[in-house]
């Protein structure tokens, strides 16, 4: 598993959107932690979500695996 440094500055702000937010969009340069922050937010949402189905959306299943699932396995390990 990958060990993360604590979030700083804009990462903290991005990771704690207002409760009224319906959509959260990230923009910025490569290596600005957008993916990591969004994956941590998604994992937290999944952990706290009411029971029922959840949906991850990507252009293709390969994109979901490469850009979402593989990094999450690297962050949290296999379960």
The number of strands is 0
Helical percent range?
A: 40-55%
Distance from first to last alpha carbon: 12 Å
Order of helices and strands: HHH
Give the overall average pLDDT.
83
Specify the number of helices. 3
Percent of residues in beta strands? under 5%
Largest sheet: none
Structural Rg? 13 Å
Oligomer: single chain
Global morphology: globular
Structural class: mainly alpha
Describe this structure as you would to a colleague.
- The protein has 79 residues and is mostly helical.
- 47% of the residues lie in helices and 0% in strands.
- It is built from three helices and no strands.
- The chain has helices at 10-15, 34-48, 61-76.
- α2 crosses α3.
- The longest helix has 16 residues, at 61-76.
- The two termini are 12 Å apart.
- The relative contact order is 0.16.
- The model has no long low-confidence stretch (mean pLDDT 83).
Entry summary:
The protein is an all-alpha fold. 47% of the residues lie in helices and 0% in strands.
Produce the secondary structure layout.
Elements: H1 10-15, H2 34-48, H3 61-76
Helix pairs in contact: 2-3
Structure keywords:
79 residues, mainly alpha, 0% strand
